[in-house]
Write a structure and sequence with these properties.
The complex is a heterodimer of chains A (334) and B (468). Chain A is 76% helix and 3% strand. Chain A has 334 residues and is mainly α. In chain A, a hairpin with a 2-residue loop joins strand 1 and strand 2. In chain A, helix 5 packs antiparallel against helix 6, helix 7 packs antiparallel against helix 8 (184-211) and helix 11 (234-251) runs antiparallel to helix 12 (257-277). With 468 residues, chain B is mostly helical. In chain B, the strands form three sheets. In chain B, strands 1-2 form a two-stranded antiparallel ribbon. At the A-B interface, helix 2, helix 3, helix 4, helix 5 and strand 2 of A face helix 2, helix 3 and helix 13 of B.
Chain lengths: 334, 468
């Protein structure tokens, strides 16, 4: 019984983190693309396309972190010191970016400064998240119930690679969000950006996928051993199909398809990560069952999640519905 | 260069800095969210334009304060793990669920409806919009419920057991959540948030009344704020006293530190008004004291014996000077607030509420008093709990992450630099908004920017069409 709850919680946290990645992913992506749009009007439209929802997007990060603390306290206690520097960098980046949403409307003279803060904050936060992911995959040094490595262990070529890959991925999400939410020249630019970013992302996915199995024996076993490979080979195959569909959707200048297909790409990459990691929460050191909080804690929260998450998804969907459609720069000046 | 520093001290400094910075914003946004809901309700009910103008005016300020609260709050949710890993491992099973419920019941509610509240009036209409405002206000209060439950459990832990790997585990969730100090702490904090907001609103109203006593928005906000202070300040003093008695019962050493009682007083303890506590010598120097009054306040009897820190092992003493002084700052400000409330009632009765310059100057000066009192209160309760993170059970020195001092020192400096840059800018923008009085047809947060969707009428037009 205890095993089942730990597994359920692993999926809940994985779900929260995935929702965070795709939702804050596109608005962080907008920040990363910000310098490519120089006109004030374009930047205003970009900001307005996410201003009503970014705060809700970011709350999933708190649920991911808080959920880990609550359901797998040992993993939280080991991973946070291990990923200390990237996490602090992410928090500081998010701080700059978050206040920029309000501050840039409150000043004429310093608007440029907050635009830069929005860009750099988004870039640093994304890079830090990618680096943290890479550092997690390559494993952390654990002794007893604590992190036992140094405060620079996270920094390796592999973690930098995953950092850059995530920057490209979020930028692609952001570009396709703009395809969906804007019109005119802004949208044309987004189409072009999307095509280039997609190619860059493919290179990054291949590089990360090629490097991951060589991080440890477990990963290559997991991916290449017979008959596992029959199942795992479906992941790269699906990536190829989705990429082809995405290229076609971009060529046909579809509104919604590019964004939704990018979400599929993220889901596939995420599934790949899950295949590599399962059932560890700290790779090769701590499994989800070892890290699990006592059953009554996990059960107590499970009740809340079962009741509240559907409600949250409902009103979140409603908020997106209220602000649906294209952000039109022309109709509003009065 | 940081090798000689103690990572525990650095981690404590970092926590104190980030949490002090953070607490200012919830204290303000809890009260302001409720104020906005009241303003919008009054607008829907009376159809008077002054209320929607005030609503839009304060909503812009709320948006900035809320944004700063969110970004500093995200830091808090990760700080437990980064700097206090052992604490996280041990308390995760009991505190984690409380915080997870805070996220599920409060943060999502606030964030989900905030967008509609800020930008959606023209899209959803006044009634649904009021629902969004109400949800944001309820979210802020729910957040206070959970976070104060978690904090109170660290002060007065009940309903738990300890398992074989040293983790606290829940035995009785109801006892754990509604632990002995929780009702007092929650009441005290929510009242503090309302007072803080009332002081800010009253101060802005007073500022504009000083230049123009006929300004309708300024009159309305000043009058509302003065009612709030007059009613809440005395209740708060009463609640604070009850909280103090509860603390005496469960955390006597904290009260001894607040009162500066290093020595026991077998036949009636004096109230030390001022003095310089000397922790090493265990005496309060230059003490100005009123005989027997401390016993009267704490035990409701002049001659009741009162134990001092000499009954507590020295290694369990809180740092008396900080607790002693922060407590006095909070209490002094509390009585000043009471004074402002009484003064305003007297002038209101005499019909001079909007004309009295001394009252307006007093109210203006009291603008930041709530923030200072809230900070001082938190310093009192948190340093009074030392040297423990979970009172009596888990020591602060045993709670920290296995981190090198340079890592913590670097991040501390980074937090200080980033937070000050953000804080100064935010305060400047808020003050700039406050410098103008609310005017007729006050616009929402994006007054100068493109709007979406053709054919939707601006809010004032909706208001006049629906209600005229």
């Amino acid at each position: 019984m205890a095993y089942d709850i730990a597994t359920i919680w692993a999926f809940i946290i994985a779900f929260a983190v995935f929702v965070y990645v795709v939702m804050d992913g596109f608005d962080l992506g907008l920040g990363i693309l910000f310098p490519l749009f120089r006109a004030k009007r374009d930047r205003d439209v970009i900001m307005n396309s996410v201003a009503p929802v970014w705060d809700g997007n970011e709350t999933w990060l708190v649920l991911g972190g808080g959920g880990l603390f609550a359901a797998f306290p040992l993993a939280y206690a080991v991973l946070m010191p291990a990923l200390y520097t990237p996490i602090i960098a992410m928090l500081l980046g998010l701080a700059f970016r978050g206040v920029a949403f309000e501050f840039r409307w409150r000043t004429q003279r310093e608007r440029n400064r907050w635009d830069v803060a929005f860009f750099l904050g988004s870039l640093v936060a994304t890079l830090a998240q990618g680096v943290a992911l890479g550092a997690l995959l390559q494993g952390v040094h654990v002794e007893g119930r604590a992190y036992a490595g140094g405060w620079w262990d996270w920094l390796t070529p592999f973690s930098l690679l995953t950092g850059v890959a995530l920057v490209i991925g979020y930028a692609l999400l952001g570009a396709n969000w703009l395809v969906m939410k804007t019109t005119g020249e802004l949208r044309d630019t987004a189409y072009q950006l999307s095509r280039w970013l997609l190619l860059a992302l493919l290179v990054a996915i291949v590089a990360v996928s090629a490097a991951t199995p060589f991080l440890s024996y477990d990963y290559s076993q997991r991916w290449f051993a017979w008959p596992n490979v029959l199942a795992t080979a479906q992941v790269p195959l699906a990536v190829a199909i989705v990429t082809a569909l995405l290229l076609r959707a971009l060529a046909q200048r579809r509104d919604y398809q590019p964004f939704l297909l990018t979400l599929c790409l993220f889901a596939l990459s995420y599934a790949g990560l899950g295949i590599s990691l399962w059932p560890y929460v700290v790779p090769r050191s701590i499994t989800i069952w070892q890290a699990a909080a006592p059953e009554n804690s996990q059960l107590f929260m499970l009740v809340g999640v079962a009741i509240l998450v559907p409600i949250i998804l409902t009103y979140t969907a409603w908020a997106y519905w209220v602000f649906r459609g294209k952000v039109d720069p022309e109709s509003g000046y009065h | 260069m940081f090798e000689s520093l103690d990572p525990v001290v650095l981690a404590r400094l970092q926590f104190a800095f980030t949490v002090s910075f953070h607490i200012i914003f919830p204290a303000f946004s809890i009260g302001l969210a409720s104020y906005l809901a009241v303003l919008e309700a009054l607008w829907l009910w009376t159809k008077r334009e002054v209320f929607i103008n005030l609503f839009n005016y304060w909503m812009k300020i709320f948006a900035i304060a809320f944004g700063m609260g969110v970004v500093s709050g995200i830091v808090m949710s990760y700080q437990f793990g980064t700097n206090w890993a052992v604490f996280s491992d041990k308390t995760g099973p009991v505190l984690g669920p409380l915080m997870a419920y805070e996220v599920l019941t409060a943060f999502f509610l606030e964030a989900g409806f905030l967008g509609v509240m800020l930008f959606g009036l023209k899209l959803v209409g006044p009634r649904l919009h009021f629902l969004a405002t109400l949800m944001v206000a309820i979210g802020t209060l729910t957040s206070a419920f959970w976070i104060l439950s978690a904090n109170s459990w660290m002060q007065t832990p009940t309903g738990y057991a300890v398992n074989d790997v040293g983790q606290f585990i829940a035995v009785d969730w109801f006892k754990l959540i509604f632990n002995p100090s929780f009702p007092y702490r929650l009441t005290h904090m929510v009242l503090a948030a309302y007072l803080t907001t009332a002081l800010v609103v009253g101060s802005v109203g007073a500022y504009h009344l000083l230049s123009n006593t006929r300004q309708p928005g300024a009159r309305m906000m000043f009058s509302m704020a003065m009612w709030m202070i007059a009613v809440v300040a005395p209740i708060q003093i009463f609640a604070g006293d009850a909280h103090g008695l509860n603390t005496l019962e469960h955390q006597p050493a904290k009260v001894m530190a607040m009162e500066g009682h290093y020595q026991s007083h077998p036949d009636g303890a004096p109230l030390i008004l001022f003095g310089l506590p000397d922790q090493d010598a265990a005496v309060v120097r230059y003490a100005l004291q009123i005989p027997k009054l401390s016993s009267l306040i704490l035990k409701h009897s002049l001659d009741a014996p009162l134990a001092g820190l000499d009954t507590v092992p020295r290694e369990n003493w809180p740092p008396v000077p900080i607790t002693f002084w922060s407590f006095r700052v909070m209490v002094a400000l509390g009585f000043l607030m009471l004074g402002l409330g009484v003064f305003s009632l007297w002038l209101r009765w005499r019909g001079q509420l909007f004309e009295s310059r001394p009252l307006h100057r007093f109210a203006l000066a009291m603008g930041p008093a709530g923030f200072i009192a809230v900070l001082a209160g938190w310093v009192t309760t948190e340093t009074g709990r030392q040297p423990f993170t979970v009172f009596g059970l888990l020591r602060t020195v045993d709670s920290v992450s296995p981190l090198a001092a340079p890592a913590v020192a670097t991040s501390l400096i980074a937090f200080i630099l980033v937070y000050f840059a953000i804080f100064i800018a935010g305060v400047v923008y808020i003050l700039r908004l406050m410098a103008h009085p609310p005017h007729p047809g006050e616009e929402g947060p994006r007054g100068d920017t493109p709007e979406r969707a053709a054919g939707i009428t601006p809010a004032p037009a909706i208001a006049t069409r629906r209600f005229s």
